[in-house]
Amino acid sequence: MLFFSFFKTLVDQEVTVELKNDIELKGTLKSVDQFLNLKLDNIECSDASKYPHLSSVRNIFIRGSTVRYVYLNKNMVDTNLLQDAARREAMSSKN
Amino acid sequence: MSPLLKDFLNKRIVVVTTEGQCVCATLEGFDKSTNLLLSEAQDRISGSHLASSYMVRGSQIVCCGLLEDGAAALGSEETGAGVTALKDTRNIVEDEHLVWKRVWASRKQ
């Protein structure tokens, strides 16, 4: 559940999501659920001329299982804190 | 139940599937594994009518976008040509039957 909580802290921030079918979508993260399904608002396709499928779409639901990467701005995440939390969660789930 | 799709109920949406298919339809229902029940499905590229009722399994879904009002099928503007096909991301082994054929042959020896 750590990354679910992590993504919840990123709500209303601008993120770029790369899908497994190579589409990149940039938008404002609106919500996230336990499967890491994402909802983005005001999306912009980085290669809209190649993939016009999502033109005239602003609000999108992305199934978590199809996400390859979520690109975040460096100042949006405290990597030390996240690493610490990840280790702590790994430790607690082991026992 | 995933509440994320609630805002899309009874609205026109674009559904991209792992096969690379792009469907335009009205969302009638969904469940927590993102299985979707759609109605009045038409192909996003050509605009051709696919089915009046359409069910998509959650595992086949890539994303669902809320279609803005007044948006027509892409085909009407670009006739579907020049539109790059979306990549197929199905999780399958190609020519799997050949693999199993060899397994079967080695068993018989």
Automatic annotation (TrEMBL), chain A:
Residues 2-76 form the Sm domain. GO terms for molecular function: poly(U) RNA binding; U2 snRNA binding. Keywords: mRNA processing, mRNA splicing, Nucleus, Ribonucleoprotein, RNA-binding, Spliceosome. InterPro entries: LSM_dom_sf, Sm, Sm_dom_euk/arc, U6_snRNA_Lsm2. It comes from the Eukaryota. Component of LSm protein complexes, which are involved in RNA processing and may function in a chaperone-like manner. This is LSM complex subunit LSm2. It comes from Lachancea dasiensis. The lineage of its organism: Eukaryota, Fungi, Dikarya, Ascomycota, Saccharomycotina.
Automatic annotation (TrEMBL), chain B:
Keywords: mRNA processing, mRNA splicing, Nucleus, Ribonucleoprotein, RNA-binding, Spliceosome. GO terms for molecular function: RNA binding. Pfam families: LSM. InterPro entries: Lsm8, LSM_dom_sf, Sm, Sm_dom_euk/arc. Residues 1-70 form the Sm domain. Plays role in pre-mRNA splicing as component of the U4/U6-U5 tri-snRNP complex that is involved in spliceosome assembly, and as component of the precatalytic spliceosome (spliceosome B complex). The heptameric LSM2-8 complex binds specifically to the 3'-terminal U-tract of U6 snRNA. This is LSM2-LSM8 complex subunit LSM8.
